[in-house]
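As a warm-up, study this chain.
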Amino acid sequence: MSTARSEEGKLATLRDEVELLARSLEQMREQIAQHSEALARLAMPAPSQSQAQAEKKRATPEMLVVIAAAITSFLGKKVRIRSARLAHPPYEVMNSWAQQGRVSVQASHTLAELVRRQG
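Now compare it with the structure written out below.
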């Protein structure tokens, strides 16, 4: 008889553990669903990134004329700008890693050497 009771006790313990695991699994599924929803919200384009604001980030024709004039003056020959966009609008938070990358790329272009070759 005592072996039957001990087996019933073990069986009850196993049922409790299975029930606890099932509850834990359900909680994890709920957390995954919440995290998936949060991730989906983050992946969606922000309302501030509308088409109108994307247009504002493009360089205006006046800006392109001024840039072309400055480059023409510096290089001493006429240039044509095919495309341009603002790298960092003044109202956005600056990403220091991106800024450092631009500095590194721009530093690798030796404009003084280019001017010497042409001059």
